[in-house]
Each structure stands twice: as structure tokens, then as C-alpha cells.
Amino acid sequence: MTVQNFWLDQLLMASVSSTSSFWGGLSGSFSITNSGSQAIQGWSFQFVSKYNDFDFYNADQSAVANNDGTYTITVQAAAGAAPLSAGASLDLGFTVTSESDQEVTLAETVLVSGGAASSGSTGTSSAGTSSADTGSGTGTPSDSSTGGSQGEQATAAGGDLAVQIKIGSSWNGAYEGTITVLNGGSGTVAAGWSVSFTSRHALRSISDFSVQQQALADGSYRVTLSAPVWAAAQPLAAGASLSSYFQASATLSGQTVNDLFGFDTASSSDAGSTGSGTDVSGAESGTSGSGSTDPGSIESGSGSETGTGNTGTDTGLGDGTDPAGTGGTGTESGTGTGANGSGTIIPATTATISAVEDNVGVVQGNLAAAAITDDSTPTFSGTISAALGTGETLRIFNGSTLLGNASVNNTTKTWSFTPTALANNGSYTISASVADAAGNLGNPSASFSFSFDTNPTPSNPVSGGSGNTTKRVVGYFEEWGIYGRDFHVADVNAGQLTNLNYSFFGITPTQADRPFMAPELNVLPGDWVQPGYKGLNSNVAGGLGIHDPWAAYEKTFTQADQLVSRRFDKTEWQAIGEERRQGYLTGGDFNVSANADGSWLVIAKPDSWEDSQGGLQRTFSKTDWDGLSDQRQAYLVDHSSQFSWIDQWQGNFTPSGSNTEAKVAAVDAHFNAGGGRSLTLRTDGDLYSDDSAWVGDNKTDWEKLYAGNLNQLRLLKELNPELNIGFAIGGWTLSGNFSTSLDDAAGREIFTESIIDHLEYYDFFNSVDFDWEYPGGGGLATNAVSNQDGNNLKLTLELLDQKLTDLYSRTGRDVEISIATAGGAEKLANLNLKGIDPFVDFYNVMAYDFHGGWESTTGHQAAMTGDAGGYDVVTAIDQFRDAGISLDKVVLGAPAYTRAWGGVAAGSNLGYQQAGNASLAPGSYEKGNYDQKDLITGIQNDSYSLVWDDTNKAAFAYNPTSQIWSSIETTATIAGKAAYVETAGLGGMMFWAISNDSSGQQSLIGAAHDMLNGAATFDQLAARAPGFDQVLGGDGRFTMADFTSLA
Fold this sequence. Notes:
By secondary structure, the chain is α+β, with helices and mostly antiparallel strands. It has 7 domains: 94 residues, Immunoglobulin-like, CATH 2.60.40.290; 220 residues, no CATH class; 102 residues, Sandwich (Immunoglobulin-like); 226 residues, Glycosidases (TIM Barrel); 40 residues, no CATH class; 67 residues, no CATH class; 172 residues, Chitinase A, domain 3 (Roll), CATH 3.10.50.10. It is 15% helix and 29% strand. The protein contains 18 helices and 55 strands. The strands form 13 sheets. The chain has an 8-stranded parallel β-barrel. Strands 1, 2, 3, 4, 6 and 9 form a 6-stranded antiparallel β-sheet that branches. Helix 13 links the parallel strand 48 and strand 49. The chain is globular. The relative contact order is 0.07.
């Protein structure tokens, strides 16, 4: 194609570079240049081509058929795109399916957006009777309006076409909704129709209209909608409508549709009138006017074309408030009739029911629609579209029966209601309506239905003693996340998880690496303990070991650090019981504060056992000291031969003597002097060195002097006792010693006893996760491997199960065993599934890493199906099904990170299955891997196209400019995988790793939680995600059936 330059107007010039052909098409690039002195917002241009399926990577486009067989292609700035700066240029790459001539012809003109019928303002909805008014004048109506705001929804009309906009959910920096264009007239609207309105923000993700957006001087946008390309030649029949989803980038704070979208206002008078205006539609005659029983109805003119029109004149009398079209210059004449509404004005404010919360019994939390609750006083809550006026109340109904008035906060526009009691078992259908002082009811909210049963049966129970009653949602916390990632235990959203695994403990290979014994394990007086880490049964190889002591138990969390916390609302605070409340208030671990709304904030105290000088300390009363019996000398032992014990004493006492017996005698004399004396002892060194610590004669005497991540996990468990917290052993890096440590009975005894010791010392853990990568080989090349690995794992789990049974009999603690397994068939074959299954509570199936940077061709890392080598979700789950494993023990894993390649050409499928190099993809923290939270941001700002592969059922992102291709999961794909979990009867979902995940509306873990718990539907979760820019293969659509049909 020859390079062509065209001036689009006095400021904007476009040029087309030479193109290259590929199989079935050609590619090229447009370059637009702003030659003016000011930035251009919302630029657009057009050209003519014999082809209509242009695909621009970084702009929006549409095509309209011309009479000569060509197409007019409109290219415009993507919604939310930055202005084109003065003097700047922008390259717009494209592909188009073509034949061999490679010819593309450009038009030298640009069609100016506008010319569509103006939309009307919203009025106030009412009921009443109409009385006829007539008016005469010339012209067509240029403005009109309809009935008023319905919550987050408004309608405006121009001619027979009405535009309805409804706002859906909003999240940080964005909101979503639907736009509907309706032919409300009695006749067909001819092809070529369009409507327009103003928007405070640029709109995006509109897929079912052709869209033009013009930036206005006040920063808003004129949005013009017309039929989509595929329906451009079709009329819109009477009563027919078109709708489309949309998004906009802005943070909402109580704004309504009327605040965000503008419709050209119409005047109101006592008589219906006709106006004159520009003939927008080009019809040869107007439409007869008709009145409405609602104030704010549309009035339009009728007649035949006679020339320039004049302002319409009202001639009828009435007592209503119908608006009429505003007079102006027109090209049609006619007469119109209108009707004045009269009747009772109802409240315009509407309500939404956001949640119905069960607060008692085994099953608690927000109810899903049609769920069963045993709570006779569930809490209803929601929002109102505007603050209530004087005398207005919000009434709550069960069907038509009034339950009572809600408590409303006009400032936050929220409400809550707790019924006195649900008297009878059965179904309830709840709705909310605003009532005025006279008792007139506004439009009701959408209803919420549920059933009340005093003895409900929980659905999807989780195995084990956790008390959870939903499918599992498992997340892994990385020990090293507190460093560059700056992700702490305090960042964990415990409410979205049933299980949290700390990663990773290793297996200690030599005695030199072994920590020392704890006093409760027969430490003799005078022996010493490394501060913070105790619990192993012997100083021999084969037991558990901490990989990073500083992160695990040494780091102290100060006031300036992120500290574990939880906010309890008023109902939650009452429900947890007096004993637990007092534990928070008086137990010493937390600071507790009450808030004005009845909620309570419980936040962990900074680690206090390290004093301001960095030493370890403990304060004794005389009773404490006497209670140590013969072990008192252990607190004062002098290890000067190996370790520096610096004698520092706080208070008014300094003992004399250098040996232990003299010190004990001096302390005894100190206490015997009377006066309620106490004594504080401390070391002088910091926590990071091997200073001595005190030793007691039994476990109750020992203060657990560990901090770090492990102490934060203990506090997290205290705040969320329903959360199962486990430690994971092994992982990719620390699996090297599994094979040799478990290959004989003695080694299995040491290993399992070490696990019990850790569970007893770190007693907040209630699960153990084996992440051996991998029995029989397939992990690091340096790992020990044996063909007996699968059998030895079975023997180890059998022994551990016996020890856990003993632990339960002694302590009442129920500890679960989970296995993190690969998804590939060759690794699962070595796991000995049938042998280990009797001792396993659930499996965390790593159904990801099927493809990645170790390969030189792009591929899906977690596709649902269709992989030629069997590396997909369905094949992985089939391994468990074929082995006879109960599928409710199988937890489907999903990645919260991506696998990426750089240097990837587009090819015929936007980079899929193209050559690439992972080292050319910078990644978030390592080359070839992006955190999902980082890549989703690039998709939202249009740096990447988001594509759905409908053949393999997997999503990916591609940037043709940087040539980076990456797999990715979104809330939409996770909603689909959760639907698959439900349909297939699996046990839940698992995620590696929590630090990679987005927060808020884009959280993958949040999406799984909401789907599996019925808190959101598939459609709602799909709407949270960015829309797919393209669908490849399959039936060309993204639906829930893409997943559930595979179950």
C-alpha cells in the first residue's frame, strides 16, 4: 500500500505507512499528527476501504457500508485515552483481512459528530389521570423528557427513541452500567438512527453500539450512539431496544445517573405545546403528539414539510406540568396535542438491598439468593439513591406485609434493618420502599428471597474441624513477601479464605543447622535456647527447619509496621461472645477501640518482648520467682565461655557475685525484703544474635519469645479463629531432602515427631501441607530422588496420622493433612495417589505452570482444555477421578501470577503459539512473570489487548508495540473456574500466591470466594473484569458454559 497523507482538518493529519501481508490479510500503521498549538481530546478520522474488518490495537473503530460496495471506517481515540499533545504523533497499528492487492483508500474528509436528536431531562414520576390540552405551532420538537429517576437509572427521549442509563457497581477508579436505546413509539424507526447525550466521563467497553465521543469545553463528553456495524442497515421496530454494557474511569461517591449524564432540558407549562427544531431524522412528516399520565411526558409535532418553522404557541389550558419542546428554527410544520398529568406525587428516592446477613448458628455470613437461614433476626442492609426528605421513611416489606422501618444514614446513604423475629418457617421475599409523610410509597427495590428454617442443612461442608461450611478457598503466604513485595500478614484478607498456608518450612540436612531444644522437651538446667525458635525433638538431621529465621520469628513488628487487625461491626462484636471479647480487651496482645457506629477495632500491639535497647526481658513477681523451684538458676546461668550474657538488671536492685548460686541468693534476698517487689531481667544483645535466653522447668514457665511472621500469624488466628492456618513443607526450592529423610523408619520417625513438636509449640497451626516437588523426580536437578518416593510418602503420612490422633486425644486439636500436587500426569503418576489417599484430607492441585518461560513458544499456563500434551485443568482433574479419589477432596489451583514472553510477533492469533523469549518480558519481580495485579492495570489502561481463547478456554494479554504476550486470569475466568468447581463437585479453589493478587474488585481470591459462597453471580463477577477485546475460536463468545460444560 502506498504511503498516503491527508489533512483531516486544519490541525490533524493522518498518514498510512506501507503494509506487510500475512496469511489471509495484511497489517499496517496509521500515524496521526497534531500540528496545532493545543492538545486534541477525542480525535477521530475516517477513510474508505473495500474491507470492513479493520482491527486497530490502540484505538476504537467502526465500519458503515456505502452504496458502492465500499465501507467508511471511523477510527477514534479509545475511551479514556489521553489527549493528543500539540505537535505529537500517534502510531495506530492495525490488521485487516484482505486479498492480494493490499489496496486501502482513504477519504479526505472527516464527518463531524453530532446532529443527533437531543435527549431530554428527567422529570418526577407520578400516577394520575390526564386531561387534554392542545397547542399549535410550527417545527419539530427539539427537546423532550420522560418520567423521573428510578434509583441509579434515568431515561430520556428524542422523538420516538428513548435512552435509559443504569449504573451498576463501582470500585476504585471505575464504575460500570448499562445503556439501552428503546423505540417507544408505535412506528418503526428507519435505519441510520442515532441518539446523543452528555457524560461527565469518557465511556469504554461499549460493544453493542457504534459510538462517537466528542470532548466538550467543560471536560465532559458528547456521546452519540447509533446502531452497531452489523445492524447499521436495519430499522428499529416499535418496542424494540438495544443494550450494551459500559465502563467509565472515575471514583463515585454517591453520584446518581442525573449527576453523571446530561440530557438537554425541556420547559414545563400549564399547557402542552409544540416547538420547532432542526429536522434531525430527515423524515417528511412529524409524529402526532400524545399526552401521558405522568408529569414530564414527551410531546411531539406532526404535519408535513412546509418550510422554516416558528416557535410553538401554547393554546390549551390545564393544571398539569407536562414539558413541551423548546421552540427554534425547524424545517417542518405541524400541530401537536398534549396531555397534562394530575395525580399524587410519589417519593423519587429508591432503595437497594445489598445484603441479608445470618448471624447465628453453624452457617453464618451473607446469604445467597434463595438460601436457607436459621437466624430468626437476620440483618438486612443496603443503600438509598438520595437522602430521605422531611417526613420520609424507608419501609421494609415481606411481600405486601410491612415488617417495619429501617434505620437510615442520610450522610452515607445506607440503611439497615433487623426484624423483631421471623415467626414462621418458610419463604420470605423482602423489598424496600420509601414512604412520604402521607404514607405514599415510592417504587420498591428489587426483591431478595430466602427461606427461614430453624434446622437448616449446611451445604458444601469443609472436612476437618475448622467449622467452615463453604467450599475451600486456600491461599499461600510467602515467607519472603515481607521484603521487596512489602506484603505482610496484616495484608491478608482472612474473610476471603478458609485456609492459609505459610510457605515454606524445609528439612534440615545436618546437625550444625539444627536449632536447639525447648525447655518443655527435657532441657536440663543450664542448657540454653536460641531465642525465638524451639520445638524440635533432637539435634539430628531430618527434622523441620526454618528457611529464613529473621522473617519467620526474629523480625519485630513495631508501631510503624503493618500490624494485624480486624474491625468487628456491632453485630459481630456481640456474636463472638464475652470470653473472646475479654481476651481481646485484657489479654495483652491487642489494643481495642470502640467507634461511634458501634463497631470495634482490634489491632495487634507492637512486639513488646524486645525492649528499646534490643534485649529480651521478663518481669517476675515473688510468686513467679518462687514458682520456678529448682530451675531458678537457669535464668541466671553464665554462658561467658561461649556466649555473652551481660548482667543488666532493671529496678532498684543490682546483685553481687559472679556465679549462678550467688545470683540466685541475691534475688531471693531481694524478694524477701518485702514490699511487693518485682524484678525485670533482660539480655543486652539484640534478637538477631545468639544470645542466651531464660529457661523454665515446664512449658507454662516459658514465654514464647518469637516474633516475625509466625507471631503475626498467631495474632491473625486469634482474630479469625475460623481460619485454618497451616505450614507448607518443601516447595520448589526446599524439596531436596524429602527423599533421603523419609527412606527408612528412623528418618520417618524423626521427621513426623518434628512436625508434632512444631504443632505443639506454634499451636495456632492446625494443618500441615506437603509440597514435595516432586516424588519420583521432576523438580530441581539437585533433589534426591528414589523410585520408592511414593511408597515412602505413604508410610510417612500413615505414621503422621497416628501421631495426630494422639495429639487430638491429648489436646483436642484436630490437624488436617493436605498435599500440594502437580497437575501434569507424569508427576501425578509417581505420587501414589491410591496409597496416600486414606491419610489425606484434601489435595491442592497446582493446575498451572503447564507452559512457561522454559519454553520458546508462547502457551497458556492454566488452560481449561484442549492442550495437545494434556497440560490442562480437565486432564489434571481426570487423574484424580480415574484414581477413585473423592472429588470433594480435590481443590483446584489457579495462578495469581502470569507467564510471559517478550519478542513475540502478532502472527495470526495475536501472539499465541508464536516464538518468544521470557527474558525479554521484564516481569514484576523476575523476568517472565507478572503479578496479576500489575498486568491487569496494563489491560485497564489499554496498554494490552485482552483476548479469550474460546478453543482452549484461557485468557491472555498482548501488546503489539512492546511485543509482550502473557497468560492471565481475571475475575471473569476465575468465576468460570469456580462454576466448574461447583458443577464437577470439587472441594474448592487454591491460589499461589496471595501477594500476587489484586485487591478490591479485581481480586481473584475475592472472585472465587464470592462465587463459591453465592455472594455474586457469574455475570456480576465477569462484569468486574475488563471486557475481552477479541475472542478467538470456539463459538466466538465468553460464557459460563465454556467451563461448566467441561465438568
